[in-house]
Amino acid sequence: MEHLLSYIVFIPLLGAALILLTPKAYQHLYRVLAIGSTGLTLLLTLYAISSFNGSLSPQISGEDNLQMVVKSEWFNLSLGNLGTLSVDYLMGVDGLNISMLLLASIVLFIGAIACWNIKEKQKAYFSLYLLLSTSVLGCFVALDFFLFYLFFEFMLLPMYFLIGIWGGPRREYAAIKFFLYTLAGSILILIVMIGLYNSVYDPVKTAEVAGLSLSDYSVSDIQSMVSEGEIEKDALVKTFNMLHMADAANYIPGSLLDKYGPVATILGQPARWIAFLAILIGFAIKLPAFPFHTWLPDAHVEAPTPISVVLAGILLKVGGYGLIRTAYAMFPDAAFHYAWLIGFIGMFSIIYGALNALAQKDLKKLIAYSSVSHMGFVLLGLAAMTSEGLSGAIYQMFSHGLISSMLFLIAGVIYDRTHDRMIENYGGLAHQLPRYTAFVGIAFFASLGLPGFSGFVAELFVFLGAFKSASVIGAIPAWMAVVSTLGLVLAAGYYLWTFQKMFLGKFWVKEKKWLPALKDLTLHEYLMLVPLVILIIAFGVYPALLLDLINSGVESFINHLTASI
Question: Can you tell me the distance from the alpha carbon of 434 to that of 445, in angstroms, rounded to the nearest whole number?
Answer without folding.
Answer: 17
